[in-house]
C-alpha cells in the first residue's frame, strides 16, 4: 500500500467531490494511474499544506502530492519527482489599483497560504520596493486557501498569491468580483515528494510517470481537467537546479 498525503482544498489540482469524501482532480487521477501501473493500493489523507513535507520526512506517509513547487531549499529536505509546470499570480478585488507593475504592490498587505514558497517571491518584491524608496509589502500567512480568500474579502489583506490555475478557479467561483494580475512572478516545476532514503520509490514513480507520457494517459488526464498548459515535457527528479 502507498500512503499519500495531500491538501484537498486546491481545485483543480485536488478537492473534495460533492460527497465530501472522494478526492478528485488532476493530481488524484495522476496518483491513481501511478498506483495502477505500480500494482499497489493507496491510502490518501488530506492534511494541512505546511505539514506535507514534515509528514513525509517522518515516515508518516510514503509520498505527498499537492502541486508542491520544487526549489533547491526543499530539495535539501525531500526528493522531488517532478511532473508538471506552474506559475504564480496575484489576485485582488477588481476595484483595486493593483496592476501588472509590481511596484503597485508596494505598501500593501499580501495574503498567502502558510508553507508555500510564495512568501519567498513576496519577500523579493518587497526588497525591490524598499530599494526604490517605496514601502515594503506586508505578508500575512494563513492556514488554507479558503482562509486567505476570507482575509481578502474581509479587507485584512489587499491581494493574495496563488498558482495561476487555482487563482482562476477562485475568481470564477468568487461571490465578489476578483481580478488576476500577472506581476512577473517566476514559473516553476511541481512534483510529488518522497524521503531522501526512499530511492526505490522515487525511481519507481519516475518510471511510471515516463510510461504515462508514452501511453498518452498523462496528456489525457491534463486535458480532462483542462490543465494542459501545466504539461511538463519530461518528468524528472529534483529539476529545480535546471530552472531559469
UniProtKB/TrEMBL annotation:
Keywords: Plasmid, Signal. InterPro entries: Solute-binding_3/MltF_N. Residues 1-229 form the Solute-binding protein family 3/N-terminal domain. The keyword Signal applies. Pfam families: SBP_bac_3. The keyword ATP-binding does not apply. It comes from the Bacteria. This is Transporter substrate-binding domain-containing protein. It comes from Lichenicola cladoniae.
Amino acid at each position: 500500500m502507498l500512503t499519500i498525503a495531500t491538501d484537498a482544498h486546491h481545485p483543480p489540482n485536488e478537492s473534495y467531490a460533492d460527497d465530501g469524501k472522494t478526492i478528485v482532480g488532476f493530481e488524484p487521477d495522476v496518483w491513481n494511474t501511478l498506483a495502477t501501473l505500480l500494482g499497489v493500493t493507496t491510502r490518501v489523507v488530506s492534511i494541512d499544506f505546511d505539514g506535507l513535507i514534515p509528514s513525509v520526512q517522518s515516515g508518516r506517509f510514503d509520498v505527498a502530492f499537492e502541486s508542491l513547487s520544487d526549489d533547491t531549499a526543499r530539495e535539501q529536505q525531500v526528493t522531488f519527482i517532478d511532473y508538471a509546470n506552474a506559475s504564480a499570480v496575484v489576485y485582488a478585488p477588481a476595484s483595486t489599483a493593483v496592476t501588472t507593475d509590481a511596484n503597485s504592490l508596494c505598501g500593501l498587505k499580501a495574503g498567502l497560504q502558510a508553507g508555500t514558497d510564495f512568501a519567498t517571491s513576496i519577500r523579493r518584491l518587497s526588497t525591490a520596493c524598499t530599494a526604490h524608496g517605496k514601502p515594503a509589502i506586508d505578508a500575512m500567512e494563513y492556514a488554507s486557501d479558503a482562509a486567505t480568500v476570507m482575509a481578502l474579502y474581509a479587507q485584512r489583506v489587499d491581494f493574495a498569491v496563488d498558482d495561476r490555475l487555482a487563482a482562476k478557479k477562485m475568481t470564477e467561483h468568487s461571490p465578489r468580483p476578483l481580478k488576476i494580475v500577472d506581476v512577473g512572478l517566476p514559473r516553476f516545476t511541481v512534483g510529488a515528494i518522497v524521503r531522501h532514503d526512499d530511492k526505490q520509490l522515487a525511481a519507481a514513480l519516475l518510471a511510471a510517470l515516463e510510461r504515462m507520457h508514452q501511453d498518452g494517459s498523462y496528456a489525457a488526464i491534463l486535458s480532462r481537467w483542462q490543465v494542459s498548459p501545466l504539461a511538463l515535457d519530461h518528468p524528472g527528479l529534483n529539476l529545480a537546479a535546471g530552472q531559469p
